[in-house]
């Protein structure tokens, strides 16, 4: 995907030649007054022109009311006028020569505002027609450190500079707080973009732009909703190819959060589980909250991604050693046993009485000399069981900690010249920084200072997991499914039926299984019949015992209304079961029209799991696997992946669930046919790819897995089609 045009727009937005403040005002506290102050206070190098037809003079200089009367053509428009006037002013400004704009104004469809949505449609049309590079509307301005260009409406001192982090988010408030938190840790962002409703430029455009900025190491994004999924994917892949790390904070981890996203920017936020599945392929790291995002940035900016989840550590406190063990258990990392030669070497260095294992309680053993300290670090660096090294130390906040400062600089030198593994310092607790500590940490730019055991190890685990998922996410064109002629015919038939239905089209259980079987999903022998006599004939062919079920695309919970009868061993039992189902449906006032009854061979034993597809409103089709049967809604033990789904990705999905552990033979239990499950997951991925925006959901529950080598079978299935707005 080509981002060249949007890069030029972002460059015009972030490096303007002049600024025209449209809606200029000297009213104290107004956003216009704040923007004027910040443009001047942070010494924007180009001309700044106030624009307000109702004034002839502002801020002690001429105020303009016509773009044609400016001393030069306008370049960047800062727009702070009511929503109904924005589109006309943008069109006029572009005609006069403007290349970009920041639109602060709101009222374009946020908070379920249908009238405002009409203005939003007009605004998007004007932006498209003029080619302006626009941030907003409904934003709070930007910081572009390399250009000394600040339109952010923030009173707190900012100090724009060319820093290693770029912030982009749909919430100005979140970006302001994230900026302050990073500055506190000594990581002044080079850019802060509040993208607002993204009527023009979107997060993908900014990611693609920052991917080309050599000074940027980490791009932090705050997302309420994605408007162009494929563009976002392409931008992330491009940024990763350029060595940039991307850290995402996503609104929508709860139903209330998704509702807040819609109310805030007009975005329809999807589920965070689906979002995680999608970004896993892209190498994007998701942080649960701003604190975690700051810790992850500290790690990525200064140390880089960890080599894995296996950590070696040297502590100066036996108690902290125990805290690290507890935090490791909570956060999915480990302190593996060190090689015997490593332990012997540490014993020799630290002397008798030291607790030599992992983490190493170095205590005074490593403090007695710089030589001991470095030899201990070298010993752990050489151990093949360690991926990442942690050293207990903090950045001194005041002068006087000579030993600490010397050791910090020794580690910086060791990292530059000898280290083969990522190394970071870690503190016992979170703490603030001072001007002294921030200045000191800038002298050691190759080592991070992670704070508090849980936050630190969670950051390491989160980044390590992102790298694992990125490796599993093979490029789509390498595994893209290409349906054969028979499948293509089936897709065409279903598409025609779905389009004729005018809404959701559910297949009944029998139809669902027939469809899934074409894509490689196993199901048992069964027959759809319409009379007790036909049921007896079918059962004789299939073989007793059999199961009898009512079949209707709208009867979703058959067992709840007695529409499933199990363990039928002869014709009499089958006929009686038919009558019981009819009576049960009447008793429960079930009015659904039945398509018939399903006679199926009863499969005994095995482990019940659930497989499925769900079309997320933001991410699209997502494949799911987890613990099935009646436990699905209770324990929600599920894992997700976006198509294409390879065997390796399917195995990883299973590894994230309790169901996967049971399949492997938990605590001496039987081993089940994992290969059959993997093939079924891959088959669902192919089906999701082939139907794309047409499939709404597929639910295979239970999917019964037999002992190892004996296969698996879909015992129940429901597939629903509904054409998405993008299909």
Give me the secondary-structure topology.
Elements: H1 4-14, E1 19-22, H2 31-41, E2 48-51, E3 57-58, E4 61-62, E5 76-79, H3 83-95, E6 100-103, H4 114-130, E7 133-135, E8 142-144, E9 149-150, E10 165-169, H5 172-184, E11 191-194, H6 203-210, E12 218-223, H7 229-241, E13 245-250, H8 255-265, H9 272-280, E14 285-287, H10 290-303, E15 311-315, H11 318-331, H12 340-350, E16 360-361, H13 363-367, H14 370-381, E17 388-392, H15 402-417, E18 423-427, H16 435-441, E19 448-451, H17 453-472, H18 476-479, H19 485-501, E20 505-507, H20 509-518, E21 526-529, H21 532-542, E22 546-551, E23 564-568, H22 571-587, E24 596-601, E25 607-616, E26 620-627, H23 632-635, E27 638-641, H24 647-655, H25 658-663, H26 674-691, E28 695-705, E29 712-714, E30 718-721
Parallel strand pairs: 1-2, 1-5, 5-6, 6-7, 10-11, 10-12, 12-13, 13-14, 15-16, 15-17, 17-18, 18-19
Antiparallel strand pairs: 3-4, 8-9, 8-11, 20-30, 21-24, 22-23, 22-24, 25-26, 25-28, 26-27, 28-29, 28-30
List keywords for this structure.
Rossmann fold, seven-stranded mixed β-sheet, flat, Dna Ligase, domain 1, 30 strands, 4 domains, seven-stranded antiparallel β-sheet, alpha/beta, 727 residues
CA-based shape = flat
CATH topology type of the largest domain: Rossmann fold
Q: What's the CATH architecture name of the largest domain?
A: 3-Layer(aba) Sandwich
List the uncertain runs: 256-269
Identify the CATH class of the largest domain. Alpha Beta
CATH superfamily of the largest domain: NAD(P)-binding Rossmann-like Domain
How large a portion of the residues is in β-strands, by DSSP E?
Answer: 15-25%
Number of domains: 4
Question: Describe the biggest sheet?
Answer: 7 strands, mixed
